[in-house]
Each structure stands twice: as structure tokens, then as C-alpha cells.
Amino acid sequence: MPDGKRHLVYLASNAEGLELERYEIERQLARQGMYNIGFACRDDGSGYDWSLSRQQIETADLFILLVGESYGPMAPTGISFLHREFVHARTAGKPILSFIQHLPDRDLSPEQGRLKGFSQLVTQQGQYKRWHLRDELISHVRVSVAAMRKKLAGGWVKADGNIKTHVPSTKGAVVTPLRQSTPTASVDPVAARRRFEKTRQVVNLQIAAKVYEGGNLSTEELLLPVRLDQIHRALHAILSSSVSEDRLRFHLENVVSATVKKQLLKRCPRAHAVDDVRISKGQFRGILETLRDLGMVISTGEASRTYWTGTSAEVGASSV
After folding, report:
1. Model pTM above 0.70
2. Cα 111 to the chain's mean position, in Å?
3. Of 276, 287, 288, which Cα lies nearest the Cα of 208?
């Protein structure tokens, strides 16, 4: 580490049967000034936290995929958590190194069949190495990571005994700071009626989602018409205390996911699964600002540290 720079790595794998492999890979990473912020996919814990996984992947400078003998725990959509993480890393534009364990060529179980399809997808979309034994894997990791590290942007730099703020590997967008606001005061009946009419206006949510058809993956987009008061009601449960914009958006994505999946599967009749439903960040920020202007939420802080809280303003009794 002649330049003293450290990088964050998301090491993605299943937990079962790969404990020693993950340990050895983390040792190799530490020797090269890299630190793992990923965690193994498993189904015997407190539940898979996709929101946290997604956040960690987006923070990382490098994504390493370790594929063993199992497709791994699956989401309700039929896609494994590991598969989902790989797809999101590609969508986020992260550099990816993949290490895939050899599988037999015939007499595959249904589980191994799904794994083979996933492995074929990985080999078509980035740098990869195949491995049989643990020593072979570690050798591949050591060489591949050393070569990749020279190309990585961002990282952490130590200066004067302190760690500087992490520099992301991609340029972040400039966000205009938001003002602090307070609930609107009582208004006359005419103003109240106008406000009510505004809460009933329809917003076409800009949504993108991953659609799986056999071994193929595509990103589909659609517009989902929803009223402002329906959006507010969907968010109301978690607005009782201060909450971040990312958490609010993720909550709304979960609320609309069933409707989005139904529409996309109807549009793509040969598809078997829809996953990773995403709402446009820019549009969602605008929706929150509109709700704030209507006195339905208040904001504190500014830019990336803005938090939102609900008010006692009444809205219609509809749901998304």
C-alpha cells in the first residue's frame, strides 16, 4: 500500500459452506488496504435486509462475487439474494470481480440448475475466474484484486493520523439544500378547499424494475398513476418520527411492488419474476417537497442530511 489509500469492498456470497473461503478472502483484502463491508446471504438470521445490502453495495468501491455450490436463500420472487446483489452492483456501475466454483456437467439437481443459469449470466457480464480448491481461489483473488486495485478511484486516505472523508468512486450529483419548514397555519375555507384539491392530484410515478425471463434480464420502466393523498397515506405510518428520504422511498417502493409486478408480468407474459422495484429519486424528492408545501410533512436539516416528519394535517382515506 505505497499510497496509503484504503478501499471498501462488498464481498457477496452465500454463508453455507464458504466460511473459510470468506475468511481467507478478507485476509487478502486487508493485506492490500481493502475492507469488506458485505455480509453473507443466509436464511437463518433475523431476515434479509435488502435496504442495507443495497446501501452497502452503493457505498463500496469494488464488488466481489463468490459463488459456491449453492444458489442460496431466495426472495419471494424466486431470485436468490446473491443473484439480486450481483444485478444491483451491475446496475450501480460497480467494478466487479467474480469467482465461480466448478459444477458437474450433468445430473444437476434443480438447485444446481438454477445456480448454473446464474453462473452463465455472470460469465457473460464481467471478469471472472473459476476455482476448484480453496488454495486456487485464494491465488485468483490475490492476483485479481492487486490488478484491480490499481484501477480503482475513490477510497480512504489517511492524513495527520486521521481518516479523511470517503471519496466515492463516482461523481455525486449536486443537491440544492432544503430549507427548514414548519406546518402551515390555519387557513380560510377557500384555501382549505384548494389545498384538498391539490392533495387529490395524480402523480405518474416513474418506476423501473428488473424483469427475469429464463436466463435473460432486462430493465423495464412504467408509469404508475397515484394520487398525492394516497402517497401520503402510504408513508404516514413511518412519518411519526423523523425519517430519511431514502427510507421513505424504499418504503413506498415496497408498497407499490405488488402492483408493479402484476403489470410487468402482464406486459411480459414469458417472464417469471420481477424484482428490485425502484422509484425515481428526483421525482420522489419533488413529491416530498410538494407534501411539505401543503403542510402534510415538515423537513429538518439540509441536502443529504434532511429528515422528514409527518404533521397532523388531514388527508383522504384512500390507499395506494
Report:
1. no
2. 25
3. 276
